[in-house]
Each structure stands twice: as structure tokens, then as C-alpha cells.
Amino acid sequence: MTIDSMFMWAMILLLFSAMVSLIRLLAGPTIPDRAVALDSMTTTTAGAMVLYGVITRQAVFIDVALVYAVLSYIATLYIARYLVKKRVGVIYTEEGEGS
Amino acid sequence: MIEWIIGIFLAIGVIFNVLASIGLLRFPDVYTRIHAATKCTTFGTIFIVLATITYSIYSYYWVAKNPAWITIGIHSALVVIFLVLTNPVGAHALGRAARQSGIRPYGAVIDELEGRL
């Protein structure tokens, strides 16, 4: 078994793991369950993208993984901020009144 | 030799990622799901990228002096540094948001923080 085929099998298993996380993303009872499943799926997919970049010997896919991780982080923080008070895009003051 | 090192790193990473997804399916609660998913995926991705960096260093020094291997190694290290820095922050924010939006832990009987959050 060559090294490239090992990377390929690892990438296939990582994508399978991300697909299992997708079940929780579709069937989660509450919104934080779905957000946690999305976060886990994104991290796993970033690892798979790194492996794909090594298999094809192109660093562009690894940059794609980096940008994907950044966007997932921002999305997670934004969902968390939405879940605290269920309002998005409103600047909060000390009294809880939106302005 | 190098096949065994890379294979062991990849096996550890894949096993931890699969365990994270199984825990995400099997645990009863959002907090236990955060516990399973975040730590296991971060640890698994660290080992996946470690295998990648090992392979790029080996290929640069012992196979071909191609500068593309240096690019691949450094960018993979950037990916794992960013994931290690940001995954705990996102998980903590999600746990705090779930607690403040009124979700109780599975099997909790009393709530000592009721009204204090």
C-alpha cells in the first residue's frame, strides 16, 4: 500500500465521518445540536481538504480548507450570538434594549 | 519506515474523527455532544495534518527538492494552528448560548443557576 493510497483511504473515511455528522445536522432536536454538528462536520471536511491537497500536490485546496475553517468559526460565533437573545443584527445596550 | 509513521498518524486521526461522529449520534444531550464532537475532531485533525507535514518534509528532503512541498507543509500547519485556536472558542460560545437559551442537561433534577444567568 503506497502512501498516496493511504491518504486516499483516510480522506474517504473522513468524508464518511462527516456524512454521519450530517445525520445529526438533519435530525437534531434543537438548534444548538445542529450548530454543533455543523461545526464538527466543517472541521472534518477541512481535514479531508488538506488530504486532497496533498494527494493532488496542489496547495490551493489547503488554502480552501483554511478559508473554510475561518468561515465556519465566524458562522458558529454568529449562531451562538443569535441563540443568546434570538435577535440578530441589533446592537445591545445595558438595559437590553435594541438601538 | 515512513509508511509506518504516516499510517499510524492517519489511523489515529481517522479513528478519532469517526469516534466524534459516533458520539455525536449517540449522546443524549447538547453538552455531551459538544464534549464529544469538539475535542475529538480537533485532536483527530491535528494528527491528520501531522501526517501531511511529515510527508511533505520527507518528500522535500529525500525525494525531490520541489518548493511546492514547503508550501504544502506550511499551509497545512497554518490550518491546524487556526483550528486549534478557534475550535474551543466556538464550542464555548455554543455551550454558553445553549445554557442561556434554556436547555437543561440530560437528567438534571435541580438547577442551581436558575435566575442567575
Structure description:
The complex is a heterodimer of chains A (99) and B (117). Chain A is built from 3 helices and no strands. Chain A has helices at residues 3-27, 31-55, 60-85. Chain A has one domain. The relative contact order of chain A is 0.11. Chain B is mostly helical. The radius of gyration of chain B is 19 Å and the shape is elongated. The interface between A and B is large, with 51 and 51 residues.
Give the SSE layout:
The complex is a heterodimer of chains A (99) and B (117).
Chain A: H1 3-27, H2 31-55, H3 60-85
Helix pairs in contact in A: 1-2, 2-3
Chain B: H1 2-26, H2 30-62, H3 67-100
Order of helices and strands of chain B: HHH
Q: Beta-strand percentage of chain A? A: under 5%
Can you count the helices of chain A?
3
Distance between the termini of chain B: 55 Å
The radius of gyration over CA of chain B amounts to: 19 Å
Overall pLDDT of chain A: 85
- Rounded mean pLDDT of chain B is 88
Low-confidence stretches of chain A: none
Helix count, DSSP H or I runs of 4 or more residues of chain B: 3
Poorly predicted runs of 5 or more residues of chain B: none
